[in-house]
Amino acid sequence: MPNDSSKTYCLLRFPLVLLLLFLVFSSFPNTGSPPQHFFSIALSPPFHHTNALQSSSPSSSLYSPPIPITKRSNLEKREEELRKARTAIRRAVKFKNYTSNEDVTYIPTGQIYRNSFAFYQSHTEMMKRFKVWSYKEGEQPLVHDGPVNDIYGIEGQFIDELGNVMGGRFSAGQPEEAHAFFLPFSVANIVHYVYKPITSSADFNRDRLHRIFNDYVDVVARKYPFWNQSNGADHFMVSCHDWAPEVSDSKPEFFKDFIRGLCNANTSEGFRPNIDFSIPEINIPKGKLKPPFMGQPPENRTILAFFAGRAHGYIREVLFNHWKGNDRDIQVYDGLTKGQNYHELIGHSKFCLCPSGYEVASPREVEAIYSGCVPVVISNNYSLPFSDVLDWSKFSVEIPIDKISEIKRILQKIPHDKYLRMYKNVMKVKRHFVVNRPAQPFDVIHMILHSVWLRRLNIQLPS
């Protein structure tokens, strides 16, 4: 594998909230400056940083010097595009306005966004500028293919959309034109095709997964200069399989800057919100992209809270011990009887309980959102999807595991007018979790790409 050596580049890494503050209050380093690493606004002494709050020039936070107009390399052209995007986002934040040359079909507004001006401008800049190279190496089914249905379906949908459909909008014509690089392998397919048959616990060893992943990176890193140019900091993967966080475990130092888009976004198991990004787990039905909508208006939602599922993991066991079959308002089932309709019950519920299973992610949050049911997240260390942009506190409730016995009291204390606001916010945020083929602005595939785009804005490579 190529040497994990002393390549130098600038890393500007932090969640979007910090990114937006940084965009407003500080200047990005010049491309001619010595490489620097930025991990937050308040930096420790070894790092040099010019903060516009301490600058005598009030305009220094709005403008970063352009690259001199000489014969620019492809890298310089890409960095200049990103510089323009950062400037546009800064201006949108400062002046609480946005600029766009495209027909406006949707304008983000309201409480569900951490900063709607920044998000809209950032999404606009992404649509205008962002180019991704999906590596062509490898053969199906381990790469360029993936499941398109059930709980791992977003993995295959994204691989197919980016590799086969998006063509003109986000796909770079040549790798030299790309701002980011996609590794189109499917962890779900690797497990399905390579880890068969399973005859003993030793067959679950991750060595085969590591070898396939490492070999693929080795191939593209030897064939192209881009991995070594950034140490993988502008390369990403997308996967919903439970094993996906472990792909880089065999060489953690080599992959320390590699971007992982994961459903299993557990911060206690190595998920890094400033580098990785959380994607929603969506149970995609066969033959269609979403379940039937059976949501009722608020006045017809007669169930206070609902959950139906198996006792996967200790959180659900605690939930069942307290609430299974014990209360008419808190309806908790480990299985539905003939005649009960899962989506109909969600549609008649005000709140939908979303306890983690064996892993932190589950499709419950998205199922709730699809049906207009306010998600009640019950988890530990779960970095919720698209939290860079979305303020989950405005359309969901978080209940700690040690408060499971108090679910009814907590939900009943929520004033009716607050519940109505949350319901309206759920209906509004739904567009960001919908799977469309082909993808449409602001849908879940665009939100995944926007998560990559934000992290690429946080990286400045040297000329």
From TrEMBL:
InterPro entries from the entry? Exostosin, Exostosin_GT47
As for membrane topology, the entry says: Single-pass type II membrane protein
* Keyword annotations: Glycosyltransferase, Golgi apparatus, Signal, Signal-anchor, Transferase, Transmembrane
Q: Where in the cell is it found?
A: Golgi apparatus membrane
Pfam families registered for this protein in UniProt: Exostosin_GT47
What span is annotated as the signal peptide, if there is one? Answer: 1-26
Q: Where is the Exostosin GT47 domain?
A: 127-414
Q: Name one GO cellular component term.
A: Golgi membrane
Superkingdom of this protein's organism: Eukaryota
Which GO terms of the molecular function aspect are on file? glycosyltransferase activity
> Where is it mainly found?
Golgi
Similarity comment: family membership: Belongs to the glycosyltransferase 47 family.
Q: What is this protein called?
A: Exostosin GT47 domain-containing protein
Q: Which organism is it from?
A: Eutrema salsugineum
